Amino acid sequence: MLSDFDIIVLMILLDRVTKTYKGSQGVALERINLHIEPKEFVIVIGQSGAGKTTLLRLLTREERQTSGKIIVGGIDYDKLKDRDIPMLRRKIGVVFQDFKLLPNRTVYENVAFALEIVGMGKKEIQRTVPRVLDIVNLSGREKSMPQELSGGERQRVAIARAIARQPKILIADEPTGNLDPKHAWDVIKVLEKINRYGTTVLLTTHNQDIVNRLKRRVVTIKNGKIVSDRANAEYKS
Amino acid sequence: MSHRFLSLSRIIKTGLVNLFRNISLSAAAIAVMVITLTIILFSVLANATFQNTIAQINNEISISVWLNDSVTTRQVDTLMSSLRVLPNVKSVSYISKSQALAIYKAEQPNSPELQQEITETNNPLPASVEIKPVDSTKIQSIENFLNQKQIAALEDPQYGNSYGGDQKIAIDKIAHATSIIREAGIIAIIVFAAVSVLIIFNTIRMAIFNRRDEIRTMRLLGARTWYIRGPFVVESMCYGIFAAVIASVIMDAVFVGSSSALEASSLGLLNINYAHTYFSKHFWILLTLQLIIGIVIGAVSSVIATRRYLKFKTAR
Question: Do A85 and B312 touch (CB under 8 A)?
Fold first, then answer.
């Protein structure tokens, strides 16, 4: 059972969460229990279709759970009204496999957009953007358009955009999925750096090498169920 | 600077920047709106010109009541005042025998024999009362009045009045045709306007469909509905402004540059000068109307078109 203590202390809390889709897809997640504390770095692994992406989409409230309870940063998703969803999303940084950069905006404007929507003033944005671009090693690329960048650079812009608001949680859905090993590792190093600054990181990946080198808590999902949850784990296929 | 004002200025700025960054898409959307607004403008002008021609034709329609020579001035006055109070009568005028003679002579300047034959002393032309109707399709009501016994008694037995026989058929045909054209003009404007609205709506919908991923991404980043939608609305309203101005300039250029060619090609059926004068006289009101159509349709279309990409999933 959930205690009030869990709700206050935990950053992410999933309690018997089930997600079923209508039609042939059927059950995507079945009675998932997951407790993640602040400042943790958690890797979620599993084959495609295992339910990793569904899990993340529930956390960003792109989808609603069919049953069970989701509480993130003290916010109970059952009590969340549609008009409050933007406020929730501003507290969570998300990095997508396909980057999702705004195509008609420069690197600078892509990062600035995340700050504009929370109503930050121009001067503060001008101070913040170069700082986060420095964290992801993209100083000097402010004026580039997304299509002028390599995949790794684009993903780092996406990370810069996700962390610019200093979210408590960073969710990264296969951020290295479209990158070669060198660039993939650059991205992972940035995520570690952010985690050291105090952000809770939830990462999904396929990449055995990354899992083995990170030596972090690993949650394995198979057929919509958590089949293992171990600290300092290594990948076994 | 307040938060709300900051958001509004950012929405407007982003809308304008997007307009220029998506210049090819913007140009295509504006071009479509220019064409549709020009069609509406053209149909309004064509309709106004037709209506003018019809009004002129209808103005020519009148009924003459030829009076016999024994009718007294007093009887004429009574007849005219009782005609004036009829609902469908626009004007009534009296043409005396000598006026009729003067008109006749003016019409036959090349026949001196006829001119000599008919003089003041030997004047077979009757005096008459000319009635102009308000609505030429309802002359029958005037005719019914004239057919009353005591009035028919005043008429010249040889001529009676002009609403009869072939002339009656001709007048009725013209009146019927003009009333159809009048209605057809208004229906044409409504149809063109409706088609234009649909075309503009679809153009904007396509433009926004192209950028649906952008909308979804902004949604995922936690942007509020109007912060995402606002720039699209601003952009679409700008399409409307540009399109209305361009359509008016094109129309003006057409009149200035090729009114003689138009005049020739319209076979004299359309009074191009009248259309040009009408356009110049009503230029600002026509431009304002186009701006309103363009801006309102642009804004409404973009609000509707963005709605589906902004929705949150509610299904469990």
Answer: yes
